[in-house]
Amino acid sequence: MPKRHAGAEAAGPSQRQLRVAEEVRHALSAVFARADFRDPELVGLHVTVTEVRASPDLKHMTAFVSGLGKDLTPGQLAALKRASAFLRGQVAKAVRLRFAPDLHFQPDTALGYAMQIDRALKQPEVARDLGPAADASPSADDSP
111: part of which helix (H) or strand (E)? Predict the structure, then answer.
């Protein structure tokens, strides 16, 4: 068994975690594309799975989801959590793993955060500071 270094946990996910998480993301996306749900909150819901993060033992997966064109409501997130057993079974059929992973759903707020940063950068006060310096003073090296 290979030795673990002191900072091995802080290094980030392993290549296997990334690969399995991406396969689970594709499997979840396919299930959401088919949209064969019994829950009335999920019928007609268009969900995008933006990212899936896997635990080191691959038994837990956190799926970051967002709605197409609008944010998911708390009721829709609760419906996804209720449907996690069904989704777990669908993922288990699509992805060959020793254990079917428990699925946890979190809203993806990255797009909203990026839009907030974009608005902040476009404010006149910030744009002025980010623009090129128009009145740069000549340095001592430039004198004849």
Answer: helix 110-121
